[in-house]
Amino acid sequence: MSTAHGARARARIEVTAAIKDEARRQLAAEGAARLSLRAVARELGMVSSALYRYFPSRDDLLTALIIDAYDSLGEAAETAHDAAAGSGPLQRWIAVCEAVRHWALDHPHEYALIYGSPVPGYTAPDTTVPPAARVGLLLFGIVRDAYRGLGLAKPSLPADLRPEAERMAADLAPDLPPETVTALVAAWAQLFGLVGFELFGQFNRVVKDRETFFRHTAGQLAHGVGLVYPQQGSASN
């Protein structure tokens, strides 16, 4: 790579980062629905036509911010999981859940972007799916390890839900029982609902010791997916 080419590449990285930083500032001040490329360009002292060379549309910029947010959340959860790698499934599960909560509290506007109200007129492309799946894959992996090890207690499953449970299992984790996959999908949704309730104020004047409440509830979610830990040699698969 030539010196000039390397300098241009570094400059592009720096300008892209500056555009994203200003866009995140606008998200915090105005919300995603009011994000404007022209406003971002104006704040950075750029002409709009120059900014369009980095992000051709508002949706392209939103997509970049969404992917960055999912990746940042995923990295935080994976780091917490790795730090608890020597612990049992319950401890690893709670570590991931707590990392999600802490990241959300530290990045409320980015959390709102990916788990809040949909942005009018915006449809997320398929490129957002892999980063969005990072936390879910961790939770599935923890349950999968338990299933292959000490075993899981199978949650109950109504007969009328079994066809949908079997479809979800075939799509998401064919190596796990349909009962478990259904409970995992519910736990994944409840985790982010629990975080959202705290972040968006629904727990005001309801829950005071939120950290203790969250940790307890994360444990209940683990129990709900079958992490009950039978004695060694009596695994229920």
From TrEMBL:
Domain HTH tetR-type: from-to ranges: 13-73
Location of the DNA-binding region in this protein: 36-55
The entry's keywords: DNA-binding, Transcription, Transcription regulation
InterPro entries: Homeodomain-like_sf, HTH-type_TetR-like_transc_reg, HTH_TetR, MT1864/Rv1816-like_C, Tet_transcr_reg_TetR-rel_C_sf
GO molecular function, one term: transcription cis-regulatory region binding
Transmembrane segments: none
Protein name (Swiss-Prot/TrEMBL): TetR-family transcriptional regulator
Source organism of the structure: Streptomyces azureus
